[in-house]
Design goal:
Number of strands: 27
CATH architecture of the largest domain: Sandwich
Number of helices: 4
Distance between the termini: 31 Å
Oligomer: single chain
Number of domains: 3
Helix content: under 10%
Amino acid sequence: MSILAVALFLAVHLLHPLPSMAAEGTASLDSSEDPDGGCIASAETKSGTISPGADTDSFTFYGQAGQGVVIEMPRISGHLYPRLQLYDPNALRVASDESWPSTRASVENYQLQMTGIYTIVASNDHPYGLTGEYGLSLVLAPGTTISQQDPDGGDIASDETKTGKIFPAGDTDAYCFYGLSGQRIVIEMARISGGLYPRLQLYDPNGVRATSHEPWPSTRASIEGYELQMTGIYTIVASNDYPYGLTGEYGLSLSLIPPSDPRGLCPYDPLPLNGQTLSLCDWDTLSLSCWPVETATNYDVYFARGPCDPLQKVAENIPDPCVPTLALPALENKHHLCSWKVIAHTPEGDIQGPTWSFLLECCFPSDFTTFSDWVALGKPDCWCSGYKYQCDGDCDGETQGFQKYRVFTNDLACLIKNWKKPITDPSFNPSCDFDHKPESFHKYRCFTNDLRILIANWKKTDADLPGDCPRPE
């Protein structure tokens, strides 16, 4: 296809839908594609839509044998009756919940039997093909308790009170604490605002639900006087108890009787902080560290660069719980939701700390004139060097066809879809802004300069391109 033909092709299809490119070995990009689903992290809540009636959405997560799992799926709008299925790494269904005639489905108190990638399948449970919007959340116990999407949750100590919000519908918040066998606990959760009816679940260090309180129609839930049966990391799961997906703000407190300070008893007080946001620009100067255990002889450290990646041992039998980031696996220059934990070895046995997480943003040079635009767009990682062909016209980060073209029809379709959109358009996809600059009086982000870049690199492969985006200005 000549450069002139590409330009004419674009001009025609700016006014007409782009047809399927199946003849070139690529997938159709029409509006029937379903964006719902994908990887979900512990303590994360996602929303989706079951439409049309036979739609199913799939979510994946990495689970370890022995972890407890809590999955919530309520209706947000429409006529949907949610249905949940959970499949293990061998593709065997291990749990399910068919909600009809309720508008909420859940999988609770299920203990994972093997380690690997699990799949959640969300669908409609009504005999007729009803549709609607839903929320879906995941908590692993023990597991990460803060996600990029939801900052509520995290570590909680005795005599500490936290506030959070159950939002959107289906949200679950997770808090963890280190408890000693024989201690008694008091957990209080009360509505502050909204329509929330609080619900509490407590999971023990083995991922088994130890106790719970579903007080609907009360606006206060509590677990009082429960005696801990083992020592380790416990997980509190806070959620809504009403059959419909109501939301609201709450307060949550913990008391351990007798009180105990986790510092020195288990790995605690992490740096980076749980839920902190960091930049890859500073990554090589940092380290992972936490408060040491008084009786520990040495430590193992585990690290994962994403919510669907396994926690892998990155340090073994080190004298202090501190690992320089330079000793960790190399990371691509794009956003990562990292997680890590420390296991302390003591003469009495191993002591496992909480699983902490932090967001690592890609590094886009702050001295670039387009840095403020990058920030205004929400710091898209497609502008960073993890997408090293984006400034040459690669909109989707993929090659196409058996020829493995880096710049081809999918990238053209992306440009067409975002043609003449300004930075303020919420539907704008920044990956099609190849030059990272506005054009014309209207400040279009995808316009003629981007078209010129795409035409200049049309049907080029990786061997034809330098792969050094973003380039110094």
